[in-house]
Amino acid sequence: MANCIRCGRTISGFTLGKKICGWCKQHEAAQRGEGSQYQPVMATPWARRETMPMLVTQAIFGINIAVFVGMLLAGASLMSGPGGDGLLAWGANNGAYTLTGQWWRLLTSCFVHIGIIHLGFNMWCLWSLGGLAERLYGHVTFACIYLLCGIGGSLGSVFWHSSPIMSAGASGAIFGIAGAVIASMKLGEFSSSEMAQSTMKSLMAFVGYNVVFGLVSGVTDNACHVGGLVTGLVLGALVAKVAPVPRLMPRLGLLLLVGAVLAGAGYEMQHKRAYPYLMMRASAELEEGKTDAAISLYQKAIKLRPGAAGAIHFKLAQMYSQKKDLSGAEKELQQVLAAYPKDEEVLNELGETRLELNETASARQSYEQLLAANSGSAEAHAGLGSVACQEGNSALALKEYGQAEGINGTLAGLHGKEGACLLKMKRYDEAIADFRKEIAVSGEDVATERGLAAAYKAKGMTAEADAASQMAEKAKNAE
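Structure (tokenized):
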């Protein structure tokens, strides 16, 4: 930005090299008897002499530069930035993440740039527009308008793109500042001045050119630009009409009002569009082994669509089981059972979970419900056999295991359960035979190999017991 050679006022960078400000030109015209005979004595808000007239603009400028330097030091490319995953890590805006709880991306994305050219153009615009706007509104109001416009631009991007895209940069906030200045000059007390009209033309040209360029380029996020511009127009109009005098309470009120509207828009978008994003992200986190993160995302999905939560509760139950949180798994399975009271898989899972919790009475109830739903269920008889064994009723346990084997002799886990029961009864040879059958049906398994090792050890077959223990460790490491 340059200074007027007549009065020293700051000249916006959008005046394209002019050396005399509009107010000096107006004064000279008045002296020549041209134009209005009235020459304002009070300096315009954007020309007030302050110790640090661009304090906020400089701070925002510095933050953007610092973030970009940080990305470079972390290995990002100077020309193209850090790439997709890197942009996400640095706080870029993406609907799949923003709408699923990472709301801070609406703001952090305004300080992340995709390469030096992107940063350079945005910082030139910020320096030129920011100085003008900060003098017009004052430090605090300008800072709030800038941040709200950035959030408005990010929300515009999320709203427009049904398939999430990566969006980053200060342009949404900069378009918002342009919109705010346009609205304030058009509707405020300086709307009739020659300087305001000249600045208005420059700003309109800036907005129009960049919108057209964004449409032609095909890579610019015009939705972010439009979202920021609309937010800025609204804020600028409100300041000009409701709070032209820089008093704290009126301006604070209107800023909070716009902030509340943006928050409401974000909440509405989340309510309508976040569910598939939550499911997608939860599956991805689960594939990466991040069980806690997946659980959190699935729980959010349940809150959004409780009517379609049955399948999610079942997944949560399986994840809690993996974490050895059996009480959590039981609660989730009960949620599923309330919606699907005759689901055989759920009843079987609930019975097994209750057995592990040593809740034999509740486990028996689950298996009896399963048997009532399907009288030919091998899983139900196997489960009732395990309940009887855990309660010390060996005869009933073997009877139930026999019935299960008669229905489905290759049922996974059946011979392992029977073998564990026979081991408990000290019938080691029969236990070993059942453990071997289980390995033939289901392959190597930690529990089966450990049971086999215990049976061999009880018979004094040390070498066989050691071999089975080694296989158990191998199976555990492979999990």
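Residues 37-44 have pLDDT under 50 and may be disordered. The radius of gyration is 35 Å.
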